[in-house]
Amino acid sequence: MPSDATIAPDQMDNPARARHAERLVTSGSAEEGRREFEALRPELLRDPGAPAYLTEALCACGLGTVAEEWLTEAVTTIAGGVSDAGRAEQLFELVRERHRVREELDLGHDDLDDLYHEMEAAAGGPDPQEGRAMLFWPAPEFTRLIARWPERADIYNPDWDRHREGVERALSAWSDAGVVHLGLIVGSVDALEAFAAAEGLDPAAQDTHAAYADEAADAQGAAEWPPQRNAACWCGSGTKYKKCCLPRARG
User: Gene3D superfamilies this protein is in (predicted)?
Assistant: First the structure.
């Protein structure tokens, strides 16, 4: 069987081509290696495996900042509904790899990291074509939740305005990525504690919150999202959706 060195790059499969580009950069042929990486860059918009293999190769040869830049642009393209390759699976793989790279680069948390956490929380839900539902904590419940378990601000955000903004943004991203039948599950601290006690789980644990969301979805169903533009906003503010949470995903 021929080695990669005996095969033209454009005849390799994409993961092999990424490794080839990595070897070029690390062996002193940086310009040629960057051209090979650039040839693979469009795969970020269409191949669910590309965020992982391309990011791994870029980081391995010291191009982590390039990986972060490319992933950010790809996320923005797909989440904005510009690309016809904007599938939910592709978007999730992009935000996951981007989050990992940013942690390795010791970069601060930003809005797209919030999107990753929201999508991760929903990832254990039903198949994208069957629908997705997000766990939402109304203002009084959110205040109790964060006071009781402040560490859970890592997935829900530290204040209620950012929490509902994150929920709206995540649902909008799923919608832009082609997911249908989106909904909201209303959280209750008392119900969470009762669920954790019944199941013998730690109510502070992130996994418990995910399991509670599944249980709540089965028990109460999910409220349909989005509401009509002139209907009351889903967050319970009493304001019309078009003037409340709808603009939050566009900010």
Answer: 3.10.450.50
